[in-house]
Amino acid sequence: MNRLPLFPEYQEKAFEEILALFPHIGYFEVSNADTQQMVYLDLILNESMRVIPPVPLLARQTSQDMKLSNGVVILKGLQILINLFHLHRSKEIWGSDAETFNPDSFLPFLKGIRNCLVLIKRGQSGGISNTQDSGGECGAHQVLDELHEFN
Predict the structure, then answer these.
(1) Where residue 147 falls among pLDDT bands split at 50, 70, 90?
(2) Residue 122 in contact with residue 128, Cβ under 8 Å?
(3) CA 84, CA 52: separation in Å to the nearest integer?
(4) Which of 29, 106, 110, 132 has the maximum number of C-beta atoms within 10 A of its C-beta?
């Protein structure tokens, strides 16, 4: 959220969403149901955590031997570090503007038990295309599949 003032177009969209939900000025209660309707604000929060992850490195220990897609075998019991800062800025996963703060560049299509996002990337023509519908694999799916084996 600390980046929001740097992008007035996104800040205005968030303000409009909040104003639509709470049109009356003054003090009022905000319920959990109200926050569930704040779709654009959720996009902003997720994009903020993608661009500047609150935890840049994630440590894990393998629970079994695992062969990665590139042929490298990671042995059971090995401690590894996952560089989330680099992963969240990967152009293979997020596209050519991976380092740019843009909550409109992806939409939360599904949120599973781990609050995982299915990415909907922008197409070449500027339209939005779902990476799963195109028959191709998104790099994030490969990374998530490989990381699934860790505790």
Answers:
(1) very low
(2) yes
(3) 9
(4) 106
